[in-house]
Amino acid sequence: MTSLPVGAGRRCQAFLNPFHSAQYFSPEIQREVGALGIGGTESFGAVYLAGRAAAFGRVGPGPVTASFFSFSHELISQHIPAVWGIASPEDILAARLRAADAQLRRLLGEETVASAEMAEAAELALRATEACDRSMRTLYAAHADLPVPDAPHLALWHATTLLREYRGDGHLMVLVQAGIDPVEAILTHSATGKGMSHKWLMRTRGWSEDDLAAGRERLLERGLLNTDGTLTQAGVDLREELEDATDRLDRAPYEHLGAAGVARLTELAQGYTTTLVQGGAFPSDLRG
C-alpha cells in the first residue's frame, strides 16, 4: 500500500464532511422531520438533535450529551427523550434519508446523482469505512449499525456520515485528554476563524453568554486566549496539536483506501461540496 501524503486524510475529510452536514441546514430536513410533528418556528435544535440521535434508539439525554459534547445538557434535555414520544427513531431516520435524497437531487441535479462518478465516490467512501473500528466510537458505531442505502448518492451520504462521526469521536477523545471542556473547545475553535459565528453558536449549542464568558476566563488563565478573544501562540500550538492527534486517530480509513483512492475521493468530494456550497446549502453567516 502506498503511504499517504501528509495531511491527505484531513483534506479528504474536509470535503466529505460538508456532503453530510449540509443537510442540517436544509429546508428538506425541516419539512420531512416537521411532518412527523417535530420542529416548528426556530426548530433547528429539535430537528437536529432528533435526526442525529435517532441512530441510538430511544435513549435519554445523558448519552446524547456525552457523545455530542459541545451541546449543553440543558438544551438536549429540552428535546430528548420528548421527541421519541412524537415520532419513533425509525421514522425519524427514514425522514432524514428522504431529506438527504431531496436536497442532493435539488442542489447537485439529477444527472450528477445518477452519474458513474457518484457511484465511484460511494464505492470509495464505503471502502474507506471498512477500516473503521467501533471501539470507543459511540456516534460512529450507532450509525454503522444502520443499513447502507441502495442509491449511490445516498450510499455516499451514509458513508460520509460514518467517516464524519468516526473522526468526530476521535477528536472528542483528544479534547478530553487535553483537558478541554465543551465550552473551551467551542471558543478555541471559533478563535481559529473556522468555527461557527456567534449568532449560530448561540442558536445551536445551548450555552449562555455567562457560560461563554466563564470559558474565556479559564482559557485566559491557561494562557491559551488573549483578552481580545484571539488565540495566543500557545493556543495556536494547542489547536494544531489537537488536529494532529485527531489525524492519527483518523488515519485507518484513509490508509485502507490508499493514496490513489484518497486522491480520487477527495477530487470527487471537492466537486460535490463546491456545488453544494455555491447552491446555498449553508447559511451565509454560519462562519465567523
Written account of the structure:
The chain has 288 residues and is mostly helical. The chain has one domain. 67% of the residues lie in helices and 0% in strands. It is built from 15 helices and no strands. It has helices at 8-21, 27-34, 44-53, 61-68, 73-79, 89-108, 110-113, 116-129, 138-144, 152-177, 182-191, 198-204, 209-221, 233-249, 251-278. α8 packs parallel to α10 (152-177), α8 runs antiparallel to α15 (251-278) and α11 crosses α13. The longest helix is centred in the C-terminal third of the chain and has 28 residues, at 251-278. It starts with 7 loop residues before the first helix and ends in a 10-residue tail after the last helix. The mean pLDDT is 95.
Itemize the secondary structure elements and their pairings:
Blueprint (H helix, E strand, L loop, with lengths): L7 H14 L5 H8 L9 H10 L7 H8 L4 H7 L9 H20 L1 H4 L2 H14 L8 H7 L7 H26 L4 H10 L6 H7 L4 H13 L11 H17 L1 H28 L10
